[in-house]
Design goal:
Chain B: It is a multi-pass membrane protein. By secondary structure, chain A is mainly α. Chain A has 38 helices and four strands. The longest helix of chain B has 32 residues. Classes of the chains: A mainly alpha, B mainly alpha.
């Protein structure tokens, strides 16, 4: 399949990387490469270039995301061809020009790489068949123009201008994405071939207006239409070749290209006429007005560009086929004369070192050739006969004249465009007169002279086109204009005549008025300048932009500072409130009653007693929470009471676990408390405490209500299966243990991993932490350094073997009776902790390896390997097996694979618990090194 | 039974354990390569698993040979395999960056890293709600250990906040799971789906409350507004490879919301069908906007990236909240993109911070980087990706989400807010890039960044490029995945059929 259109866009994009790379080997290499790449792209386009002249449309497609209607689809019709030729042709001239423009300090490779990136994106826009693809290239032009405008990155104005251009055109691009999505939804396809045939359907669709507004936002921001025009003058901070390229044939033309592209689909409604025509007319006038008063040469050209873009937009807004043809024609003409004018301005800047027209005067003497070229281009800009600008402006006047005859208020339009025409003549005149005549140069940094020949050559080429088109339109531009207009209209062309003289009529009258008016305005410029100086800053869209951006940033800062205070309490508050809201709305929305239908059990005295004590203890903890040690002891009672509840409801396993966990936790907290003040100060305000009390009460009440709702309903679960299969399937009579090591052994494997991770995590934290420990208590009494009373130490040493024996016993019987690896591990840990506490860390470490990591590692490994063993026999991971063996003396004994797994659990529990406690303890020692040594030596 | 399903769990678990045991035996370099080799194998395993389920098969692995709903099952479907592959690829590059130089800061970096992978893989594969809780715990503790990696007061503080808040979340998870078990009598997710559809009116309130509490837990993990505040602090405080790996952490919450939202509270859940829908969309859009406001207002790059992760969570959940095939498919594509892009950004921010001397990553003009061109270029590409600008995967993801939203009546909201947020992200990143690269003055304050630090960034960007170029087949895959999620009958049958068969045999 023929894919040359894809390559036309792709070659410059790929060439950008090549150019950047080549620049390592010398400055000129990248210029030559960029030129070569552009020529290659042009060559790639040529095989298809004939087709549009025969009225053919070439569509080439490569699937990308067919599921979302996005393909790499390209199309070439007259409009696309015209733009592609302008982009490549003027691109070549700009590459040549820039090679002489850029100074030694400027990185050539970077410049040409950005330029090619931009060129490829631009070609993509004009050749895209798929709207989303068009948008992709559209945004890429925003990005690459950001890079180009900020090319002189050290300059503040370049950075600001680039960011402004990116923000404004980015805004438009995103809006356009929205518009294209809607258009695709309406038409059922993103393909232009489909969309362009569906104008009537689209215009009649209820979503037409929002879609139109969104797409126009994209076109207007790109083409610098009022009120988005302000970014364009700031983009003049770019090197002049960039301005010549971006603001003549490419970037800003993308917007009017889009208007032309979608003209058959979107135009023909009052919304279109008002929005497009209104924006165009306003921009035409405002641009022309400001252009006259800019002292900066490039500023004048920038505003004149805005004005001419307004003119083209207005033509499309008028909406007649003839107006569209005029619009296309003016696109061509504006590209040629504006590119040459920018280049001329660049030469002047380059040679004089300034572009201020109050200083750059009388250059005719120094650079007559450049002056001649600039004069021709400026005459074309002003619309002087025999130059190309005159032809399209004449067509423009003719269209407004027709409008004048057909509409009651049409004279207003005609008047406005004549005024704009006068202003255009005036600023063109100023450009020539101020720069080349008007006295002597004022204090120029450099002595001006003619630039090198090859710097003038691109200007000369463009100026020659201006002249040729202006004098012999029928033999030069006519076929291309015809093909391009056919591409825009997608319908038979209206009759038009490219002759220079159409006979006397309103258009000619308007032209004469504009020319003479312009001369008069320029002659009377002094009072006008005074007026403009007084109006300065009154009508500044940039101020609005700055204001909006500033407000947005302020707002963002205010919101973020208000929310993100870095307070844990606040995060927890949000979490509690969210949980409460979710739970409450969830429950209330279900419409069920709080109390279920289950018959309640009779209440006995013991339960009531435990419950009451629990409540009392909870309240006690709350009241005492500022005295940390006391509160901790009271909290310990809470844990013991819960263990009692488990006993009461016949859950000895849980009771044992709870008991040992409670002991270990309290020891751990006691060790940690050492580093904290004994009393917590009251830091919260009263109101805040009341708020927190309310939230806590609600959370507690909510939990209680939820529990009540569950418990008061009949319970039907899968637990029957566990009871039935525990002995035959799991080989254990203790269902809790069988669930832990077999039915849900994988959970346990996960939980011991959690425990191991907790150990490692706390180890990591404590190793990095250096906390100063207190030497006195609150009352100023020094701590008692007799940390290891002899009687207690002796007792603990005696208890150790007993405790270990108990843990072995608990471990072994675990599968059938209350016990198991977890509880046994905790018991062992408690027994060893006692040694640490009573005899000191050093003493214990002399007798016990103090590297506890292997213990954790082995535990995990044993647990995992036990699970893996079943894979050998073709069963899934963690499948258990058991057998009964007869041992002498012991008798019948059950051997279950689950015991090995439980051993893993045991080891991890011992290892992780001790790791945490030992390192907390070690930190104690580290916080009082002196006393620690004294203690040991004693 | 296909052991391929459990292999991505056992591999990191065993590797982590071995690395812990061999800590003193093997020199650091050997342990590094062991760790990297294991993650490489993990990538292969994930790819094989994806291949195995790409035809629509759902692989069920009954642990301990106990059939569901009694035992724990692992279930591999397209979604799980997709998440696994993303995780493994991400982990590979994060580890590569760590090996380049930050792993000696924590003795246990490699075991913790592997166990974190174990937790991630488990969360994506498990078919049991309580087992999901267990894996959440593993993830929490492993991340806590990793978060402290490198030490310092800021990290310790961030770690404390992270762990305290998430423990509160775990408690809520237990409440929710307990309520489910108390009313429905099961914890297997497929079984829950079956039983929940037949909830009697009297139990409806409980089931709804439990479901929404679970929503709260997942929202906390996913960093959904107003539970997002932990993320910027934690992500910006930790070391670069950990922050990069954390790019997948919020996605665990997102995954859980998607899984539970389609399987248990999907369209066939009778009285509780689409329980999450009315909550998810407004909160997701709020997340999007608050994330952007945060990104606009912060003063250092890493915190800005962290807020951009919040933004991506917003967009991701916006896509999922649409509940349609197109929406979910768009979200799944975007998920892969945002994970890789955010990770690349965190790794790159580290290189920038190292290259700027005392200025670190503060958004304030400072000395230029030694390799401003290269690092700046990478920054530009990453920013384009993150902001969702054309032509890379970020744009494609956003386009797919918006396209999917058009089919829903809420589209003006989605489109308006998504496009506004995109613009503000562009503004924020243009400002950062301009400050960091354009306004640099003076001489470079630090030696050039080594290639080892930039290679993982380039690798992750290359993954995004692959996502862009291969978008066609990938979108086809995510569409099939979304289809599978919206028709949970296949999942339920695959999980519960074995026990039904066994029972018929017994009769």
């Amino acid at each position: 399949m023929n894919m040359n259109l894809l390559f036309v866009a792709l070659i410059p994009l790929m060439g950008a990387a090549l150019t950047a790379w080549v620049s390592r080997f010398g400055r000129m290499g990248s210029a030559w490469t960029a030129g070569g790449v552009t020529l290659l792209a042009l060559l790639c386009l040529l095989p298809s270039a004939a087709a549009p002249f025969d009225g053919e449309v070439i569509v080439q497609r490569w699937p990308w995301i067919p599921g979302a209607g996005l393909d790499l689809a390209f199309r070439l019709d007259g409009l696309g061809l015209l733009f592609a030729l302008m982009i490549l042709g003027i691109g070549l001239l700009v590459i040549l020009y820039a090679r002489y423009y850029l100074s030694e300090h400027d990185c050539m490779g970077r410049f040409y790489a950005y330029l090619l990136l931009f060129m490829g994106s631009m070609l993509g826009i004009v050749l895209a068949e798929n709207l989303i693809l068009l948008l992709i290239f559209w945004e890429m032009t925003s990005l690459s123009s950001f890079l180009l405008i900020s090319y002189w990155r050290g300059r503040e104005d370049a950075r600001t201008g680039a960011r402004m251009a990116l923000t404004v055109t980015g805004l438009g691009g995103l809006a356009m994405l929205g518009g294209f999505l809607l258009l695709g939804e309406i038409a059922g396809s993103y393909d232009l071939s489909v969309i362009l045939t569906m104008g009537d359907v689209i215009r009649a669709h209820p979503l037409y207006t929002p879609m139109l507004v969104l797409i126009l936002l994209g076109a207007f921001t790109k083409s610098a239409q009022f009120p988005f025009h302000f970014w364009l003058p700031h983009a003049m901070a770019a090197p002049t070749p960039v301005s010549a390229y971006l603001h003549s044939a490419t970037l800003v033309k993308a917007g009017v290209f889009l208007l032309a592209r979608l003209f058959p689909v979107l135009s023909g409604t009052p919304e279109w006429s008002w929005l497009v025509g209104g924006a165009g007319l306003t921009t035409l006038l405002i641009g022309a007005w400001f252009a006259l008063f800019k002292h900066d040469l490039k500023g004048l050209l920038a505003y004149s560009t805005i004005s001419h873009l307004g003119l083209i937009t207005l033509l499309f807004g008028i909406g007649t086929p003839l107006a569209a043809v005029a619009g296309v024609f003016h696109i061509i003409n504006h590209a040629t004369f504006k590119a040459s004018l920018f280049m001329a301005a660049g030469i002047i800047d380059h040679e004089c070192g300034t572009r201020d027209m109050r200083r750059v005067n009388g250059l005719w003497r120094f650079m007559p050739y450049t002056g001649t070229l600039a004069m021709v281009a400026a005459a074309s800009m002003a619309g002087v006969p025999l130059f190309n600008g005159f032809l399209s402006k004449e067509m423009f006047f003719a269209e407004t004249a027709t409008f004048f005859e057909e509409h009651a208020w049409g004279w207003l339009l005609a008047l406005a465009v004549v005024i704009a025409g006068m202003l255009a003549v005036a600023y063109s005149l100023r450009f020539i007169h101020d720069v080349f005549f008007n006295g002597e140069p004022v204090d120029l940094p450099r002595t001006p002279h003619e630039p090198p020949f090859w710097m003038k050559a691109p200007v000369a080429v463009l100026v020659a086109i201006c002249l040729l088109v202006g004098t012999l339109p029928a033999y030069t531009v006519a076929p291309l204009l015809q093909a391009a207009s056919a591409g825009v209209l997608q319908a038979p062309l209206p009759g038009y005549d490219l002759a220079i003289w159409h006979g006397l009529g309103l258009p000619v009258l308007m032209s004469i008025l504009a020319l003479t008016g312009g001369l008069l305005i320029y002659a009377a410029r002094r009072p006008l300048f005074a007026l403009a100086a007084r109006l300065e800053g009154r009508l500044d869209a940039r101020a609005i932009y700055d204001w909006a951006l500033g407000r947005t940033l302020d707002f963002a800062g205010a919101v973020t500072r208000r929310l993100d205070t870095g307070s844990l309490q606040r995060m927890l508050l949000f979490f509690m409130l969210s949980a409460l809201t979710l739970g409450a709305i969830g429950f209330i929305g279900g419409g069920s009653s709080l109390t279920g239908p289950r018959v309640l059990l009779p209440v006995d005295g013991v339960s009531i007693l435990i419950a009451l004590v629990l409540v009392a203890v909870a309240i006690g903890t709350l009241i005492l929470h500022r005295q940390r040690l006391t509160a901790l002891i009271v909290m310990g009672a809470l844990g013991l009471l819960i263990a009692l509840i488990f006993v009461k409801f016949s859950a000895p396993d849980l009771a044992l676990t709870q008991l040992t966990v409670e002991v270990v936790t309290i020891v751990l907290l006691l060790l940690a408390l050492y580093f904290l003040p004994q009393q917590s100060p009251a830091e919260s305000s009263r109101a805040r405490r009341i708020r927190d009390l309310g939230v806590a009460t609600l959370a507690g009440g909510g939990t209680a209500a939820l529990t009540w709702a569950i418990l008061s309903r009949p319970f039907d679960s899968i637990s029957g299966y566990f009871l039935a299969n525990s002995v035959p399937g799991g080989g254990g009579a203790n269902v809790v243990n069988v669930i832990l090591v077999d039915f849900r052994g994988f959970d346990t494997l996960g939980e011991i991993t959690v425990l191991a991770l907790a150990g490692l995590g706390i180890y990591a934290m404590l190793r990095e932490l250096r906390l100063p420990g207190p030497t006195h208590d609150d009352a100023g009494r020094p701590w008692n350094w007799d940390a290891h009373p002899t009687i207690m130490a002796a007792l603990a040493r005696l208890l150790l073997p007993l405790a270990l024996l108990v843990s072995v016993f608990i471990f072994l019987r675990g599968h059938n009776l209350p016990g198991g690896g977890f509880i046994a591990g905790l018991v062992t840990a408690v027994a060893l902790i006692m040694q640490y506490l009573t005899n000191g860390v050093e003493w214990t470490h002399r007798r016990l390896s103090h590297d506890l990591h292997p213990l954790i590692g082995w535990g995990l490994l044993i647990g995992t390997l036990t699970g893996l063993a079943s894979l050998i026999f073709g069963y899934p991971f963690l499948t258990s097996t058991f057998t009964h063996v007869h041992w002498p003396v012991v008798g019948e004994f059950e051997l279950a694979s689950a015991i090995a797994f439980d051993l893993g659990v045991y080891l991890v529990v011992v290892g992780a618990t001790l790791l945490i406690l030992v390192h907390l303890g070690l930190m104690h020692g580290a916080s009082h090194p002196k006393q620690g040594i004294q203690q040991e030596s004693r | 039974m296909n052991h391929l399903v459990i292999a991505p769990l056992l591999l990191p678990l065993l590797t982590g354990t071995l690395l812990l045991l061999l800590r003193r035996v093997l020199p650091l370099n050997v342990r590094r390569w062991l760790s990297l080799a294991a993650v490489t194998a993990q990538v292969v395993l994930a790819a094989l698993l994806l291949l195995a389920v790409s035809n629509g098969d759902i692989l069920v692995y009954a642990l301990g040979n106990w059939p569901a709903p009694y035992g724990i099952v692992l279930v591999a479907d397209r979604l799980s395999a997709w998440m696994l592959l993303i995780t493994a690829l991400l982990a590979w590059f994060a580890l590569l960056h760590a090996i380049w130089g930050t792993d000696p800061g924590n003795r246990h970096f490699h075991p913790l890293f592997q166990l974190q992978l174990f937790g991630l893989s488990g969360a994506f594969l498990t078919g049991d709600l309580f087992n999901l809780f267990v894996f959440f715990e593993i993830l929490l503790l492993a991340s806590y250990g990793l978060l402290l990696h490198g030490g310092g007061a800021v990290r310790t503080r961030a770690g404390l906040h992270f762990v305290a808040l998430n423990l509160a979340g775990s408690t809520l998870f237990l409440f929710a799971a307990g309520t489910f078990y108390g009313t429905l009598g099961t914890l297997n997710m497929a079984d829950l789906a079956v039983r929940i559809a037949a909830t009697p009116p009297d139990n409806l309130s409980l089931v709804r409350a439990a479901g929404l509490l679970l929503f709260g837990v997942f929202a906390l993990k996913a960093a959904l507004v107003p539970l997002h505040l932990w993320l910027p602090a934690a992500y910006s405080a930790t070391s670069a490879p950990v922050a990069a790996l954390f790019a997948i952490m919020t996605k665990v919450g997102v995954y859980a919301l998607l899984r539970v939202g389609t399987l248990i509270f999907g369209g066939e859940a009778g009285p509780v069908a689409h329980l999450y829908a009315p909550w998810l969309l407004p909160l997701a859009l709020a997340t999007l906007m608050l994330g952007v406001l945060g990104a606009l207002s912060v003063t250092d790059l890493r915190r800005q990236i962290a807020y951009l992760v919040v933004v991506s969570v917003g967009l991701l959940l916006t896509a999922f909240s649409l509940g349609t095939q197109a929406g979910i498919a768009a979200g799944l594509y975007y998920l892969a993109h945002t994970t890789f892009a955010a990770a690349a950004f965190f790794l790159l921010a580290d290189s920038i911070a190292r290259g700027r001397g005392e200025r670190l990553d503060r958004l304030h003009p400072g000395p230029p980087l030694a390799q401003a061109g290269l690092v700046g270029g990478l920054f530009f590409i990453t920013a384009v990706l993150i902001a969702g600008l054309p032509p890379l995967s970020g744009f494609l993801g956003k386009f797919l989400v918006l396209r999917a939203a058009l089919a829903e009546p809420v589209w003006p909201w989605v489109m308006g807010l998504v496009l506004t947020s995109s613009l503000l992200v562009v503004v924020a990143l243009a400002r950062s890039g301009s400050l960091l690269f354009f306004r640099a003055q003076g001489v470079a304050a630090a030696p050039p960044v080594t290639a080892g630090a930039l290679l993982p960034v380039a690798g992750l960007l290359a993954l995004c490029l692959a996502l862009t170029l291969q978008a066609g087949p990938l979108v086809r895959f995510t569409q099939a995945t979304a289809d599978q999620l919206l028709h949970p009958q296949g999942y339920i049958q695959a999980v519960l059929q074995p026990i039904a068969d066994r029972e018929t045999q017994h009769q």
